[in-house]
Batch of 2 targets.
Target 1
Amino acid sequence: MSRETDDLMDLARRQNPETEEDLEDLALGEDYALNPEYVPMVADALDRGDTERLRDLLGALHPADIADLMGFLSADDREELLPHLDPEALAEILSELDTEIREEILEHVPSATLAKALGEMESDDAADVVDDLEADKRAQVLAAMPDVERAAIENTLAYEDETAGRLMQREVVAAPQFWTVGQTIDHLRRESDELPELFFDVYVVDPAYKPVGAAPVSHLLRSRRETPLAQIMEQVTEIPVDMDQEEVAYIFDKYHLISAPVVEPGGRLVGQITVDDIVGVIQEETEEDILALAGVSDAGRDAGFLGIVKSRLPWLLVNLVTEAVAVTVIGPFQPMIAKIVVLVMLIPIVSSLGGNAGTQALTVAVRAIATKELNAANAMRVIMRELAVGLLNGGAVGLMLGGALYLWQHDWKLSLVVFLAIIANLFVAALGGILAPIVLERFGRDPAVSSSVVVTFMTDFFGFLALLGIAALILL
Amino acid sequence: MSRETDDLMDLARRQNPETEEDLEDLALGEDYALNPEYVPMVADALDRGDTERLRDLLGALHPADIADLMGFLSADDREELLPHLDPEALAEILSELDTEIREEILEHVPSATLAKALGEMESDDAADVVDDLEADKRAQVLAAMPDVERAAIENTLAYEDETAGRLMQREVVAAPQFWTVGQTIDHLRRESDELPELFFDVYVVDPAYKPVGAAPVSHLLRSRRETPLAQIMEQVTEIPVDMDQEEVAYIFDKYHLISAPVVEPGGRLVGQITVDDIVGVIQEETEEDILALAGVSDAGRDAGFLGIVKSRLPWLLVNLVTEAVAVTVIGPFQPMIAKIVVLVMLIPIVSSLGGNAGTQALTVAVRAIATKELNAANAMRVIMRELAVGLLNGGAVGLMLGGALYLWQHDWKLSLVVFLAIIANLFVAALGGILAPIVLERFGRDPAVSSSVVVTFMTDFFGFLALLGIAALILL
């Protein structure tokens, strides 16, 4: 009964969610994701032009949740929502949005509003947004910003996309190595307004502004005032400003870094990268790999209809061409197939099994390369192991299929053909699955992008050849 | 010339790497990954039993790199290497190792050494290691540990695997809400030895030890001593102790958290999770998805030969069964195929294109579900968009294939058959690719694990039916 009463009260509250607290409860599910029911409530308020209700609804959300909400709204609703956001909220939301929606939204935000919002953001986030602007608007927006902020953004944009320079924030806390803990804390209290909002390390620098160590803030807090910084500082891992963001993420993950100093070629400290930026990079990079493995070029959930077609059609056409080449193997065997028609049903099975086994092997290899767990030191051992797995799995699956076929066709020769063809094809799948990524990587190509095409072609071409060739030898 | 001299000097240095600095240069590549050449150097020293050389070689490596090295060595070499590691090094290396290698290594470490090493680790890492031990050894090792440490490990193990309770460290820094910044800093200096090695927030708690806010240490450092904690503290996002680690990672990523308090059902503070643990969780969870999508059950690079077979064979057998069912569609059409043999070459093409288009759609859907970007609020819009993409891509690919076929066979009816079959199949692929993950998720299954099987079956079954059915209608 208590349970039912709860449900009823819950229902009543949802139908008339008046207080701010109620809205906050309603906004997020138990998993902290935006509640699906909340989206039509916002859409409804937008339709009715109910500004007050909208302010309450948005007020119950964290900017990250408003960014999520944007993704669930239709493009029209998104455009209508924009004028209801003040520049500070807009700044935070823009930093959180996926590129596609951000580009779409940026078209509708007036340059003056945008210039104000950019001023609220950290230099790396602001640069990302400016990078998404079209040339005309970019010039307008930058012209409307104060000189210092514009310069910071332009400096950041001078670094290549997806490098440490683009990822870093320029705001760092540095102290000379001869300072004590007390001097450092006094300095921080004095300069409080100039400091980054959050920081985790004070970088200890030499007179040339090169980092010689880092004092974690928790160590500063617990040390006595007279302790020299040099005594509590720890070794730092310097990140070169032109390092690829994937490498940066690897280093953070490997050494469990919280923040790291970014240095110019001469070794001078120019910024810092913090681990919360790295979480985003890791998501981005593995997401790229997952989509590339599935033959989807870079395009997010929020790409428009044509964006999605563009991200998938090229790979289907490549697949069409390679498959058309692979089936030419079948041509010369057509007379035999016309006689032994059951082969028609075996062709797709052999092709499908080969494709699956190849995908298994290549996915494991692609990930091992991405996480630097596969290189020259163990390549030979891994290759031999894959081939052995291919043979064993081929034997097992071949035995199953050959056996089942015998029960149906009572033709041991046909079963033998299938048994041998499956072993051959799963061996080829293993060979292609492990070699394609290794070779592509060696030649500087991204193994996640092209391995699938190569391996599918190999397993179909050799699979058809094995099945029909062995059939010709044994059955004719 | 200078380049050549460099190379020569490089070579000379590598052949006789005497100083510690030289070894450090040699150990890691520019990408901070372990240099492949370093592995045989270690293996060689192990073979020769050259303890001193081994100490130098290992001394040049960070524990995380020694863990990497372990992965590249053969199992025999790993076992030989163990006695050369002291308990502190062993503790750090064990925390870094992949499960498979760790389990293998743990068998060879004496219980007493292990007990000592566990004492050096944080409670969450130590619990992970103990969890990997076999029952007998676990009892021995725990018995050899001091009571307090044993209790901490047992408490952590009482929480389910992959929950916040297992991920958290019990060591936190908390302060009552009526304290000032100065009181807090004095307390930290006094209790320095009892504090966690690194911390990023001081949790402000009420008398019932429930967190009411968090003061970032960088805010403590820059605030005046007399400032009340309540004035600089920020809102906290509490993590329930039984929350799944995937949810925890979602929250950290969404709100850019550096650390978060973990609370018991009553709201009492019991530990904290820091972002560096989350980086590992994100890697783990996306890795699981990537492998599941490729039909590989959980098994890392370092699984033994049989482990790999076990991780892949079941999916191949499932694939065999579904494919065997799908090809039964071909059966009734065999007489037609014997007459129009070119259909044999079209069957694999239709199957392959359908499989690819399905994989594209399902991968995007699986990821959108995993990142909570696809739910009831936008499902209908996403489904309609996928179906439209399927029709358009089907039309484009069908036109290409039909056209090419016409140039070869000069039979417009056959081209029409292929054109229609491809459109139908890519429509089915889109339908299956988007619906399978959504439906599986709705029924509480992991869409990454089983979607591929469902979609491949659908595209093959309906692909064959479309091609041969339409052929029978138009060509016979």
Target 2
Amino acid sequence: MTFANVGTLGVKPGQRDEVVAILTRRSTDLDGAGCLSYEVGISDEHPDTVFVSELWVSADAHQASLQLASVRAAIKEAMPLLSGEMGGDRFEIVGSPLRN
Amino acid sequence: MTFANVGTLGVKPGQRDEVVAILTRRSTDLDGAGCLSYEVGISDEHPDTVFVSELWVSADAHQASLQLASVRAAIKEAMPLLSGEMGGDRFEIVGSPLRN
């Protein structure tokens, strides 16, 4: 069942754009990993936060992706730039008004 | 710029599936309204919550959609089933590791 991971990453002051650059770097690893969508966002109202909204073919695919070399490298690179504040939700997709 | 609206809707006990049914009912209104994605989800860990993750062509398109007949009808129908607890984030999409 399609799995969603949406969340927020708090970043140290002034580090948002660098974290965005790391998270949006093209990752061909993800192409075969069951990642359906991985959107990274920002909000003027929250200048020290990076937002992510991901869809995966399954929760297992998401979990397994955390072991991919490119994902591990991105996490390692971003970690020193994060404040430690994190939020978010994980859920199973059950439908959409855009589909029958 | 692509706009994301992700959020949670608290529902009264036992009403989750009904709220899911309302939110996932096929809405052809949305097809021409700039809605790129509208996923509705649930989580066993939070039985009284419905999750939504939406992408729109712009924040304005999202705002305008709230006036669509089908959307207004759905809100009216779901409202009595909601607990009043709501959460979420709105942000602008700046990139994805799935795209160059």
